[in-house]
Amino acid sequence: MKNWLPLALSTALLITTVSSAPLPGAAPSDWTPLLDKNLSKWRMYESHRHVPGDKGLPPTDAQGKALPPIGYDKNEANVFTVVQQQGQPVLRISGEIYGCLFTKQAYANYDLKLKVKWGTKKWLPRLNEPRDSGILYNSQGEPGVDYWHSWMLSQEFQVSEVDNANAMGDFWCIANSSADIRAKRSATKDTLKFSPTAEVTRLGNGGPGFCQASARYQPAADGWTELELINVNGQSIHLVNGHVVMAVGNSAYVANGQRQPLTTGKIQLQSEAAEVFYKDILIRPLAAMPAQYAQYFK
Asked: Could you tell me which of 133, 273, 48 has the C-alpha nearest to residue 57?
């Protein structure tokens, strides 16, 4: 794992801080589309084709030397494509190779909305596992620092399913990220679940790295689920179909045993062994956490 101590300095010049009117009363013109037919606002990264039994390690050559990843902007197997549906661009991520699509620009203080829908294809190593993807935010550094050598240091808004039902809005620490979440432990197994009235639990830094959303919400009749991420000054709200399911506070990463703020960065969409579609990807600036969500951090 790389030393992330200089991240805040190394990314400071790349950050585009988004700061404007707060959420209530914002006009539709405040939204900026992030998706077009040419993926002009995004770059790509692909890791390795999965090798059974790799247990999170990169594949090696005959001499046991780690093979390099596929890398940036090669789009092997057309993992990332845009199709037109009803005159609108729809992003297809096949999932065949682990990796990510990530914004060219870094963002701070924003409201992100998008819709997601599952495809039918699944790939190794998750042929017999729930479909999985994710929105990774406050993403900094280079991809490849996580278990699967595919993503940047970041926080994850989980896009997944459990027992063939949607499991949207869960939280994962990616690489050496950390955060504070009000969570309680499941009575039947050792799993954290977001609860606004629970005590604060610190995630990451050797502790638990996963917290389940407070509730599950099914797709609309057309199969699409609306997701929304409110991300302001190290505090974030995960919404699914308009419902708050997670509040993440004190976003940070750990370097040399010390927590450092992780409040700005690029946005990644994961390719993780399942076909998934995204559309209506929109972002708008926020000056502060809207009052209706600020209560979750008191």
From this structure: 48
pLDDT the model gives residue 181: 98
Q: Report the CATH number that the domain containing residue 229 is assigned in CATH.
A: 2.60.120.560
The DSSP output letter for 122 is E
- Number of domains present in the structure of the chain: 1
Query: How many other β-carbons are positioned within 10 Å of the β-carbon of residue 21?
Result: 13
Give the pair of three-digit tokens for residue 227: 């997701």
Q: Does residue 209 belong to any structural domain of this protein?
A: yes
Task: Write out the DSSP string of 79-98.
Answer: -EEEEEETTEEEEEE--SS-
Mean pLDDT over residues 68-92, rounded?
Answer: 96
The two three-digit tokens of residue 258, written as one number = 């010390």
Q: What is the pLDDT of residues 182-232, one digit of tens each?
A: 999 977 767 999 999 999 999 998 889 999 999 999 999 999 999 999 999
How far apart CA 130 and CA 272 sit, in angstroms, is: 11
Residue 11 lies in a domain: yes
CA distance 71 to 86: 33
Return the bridge partners of 220, or none: none
Residues 6+ apart with CB under 8 A from 16: 105, 106, 107, 108
Longest dimension (CA), the chain: 62
Q: What pLDDT digit, counting tens, does each position of 7-58 carry?
A: 443 343 334 444 434 444 444 579 999 999 999 999 999 999 988 877 777 8
Burial of 278 (0-12, 13-18, 19+ CB in 10 A): buried
Give the number of other Cβ atoms within 10 Å of residue 63's Cβ: 5
Residue 54 belongs to a domain: no
Q: d(Cα 94, Cα 50) in Å, to the nearest integer?
A: 14
- 95 in any annotated domain: yes
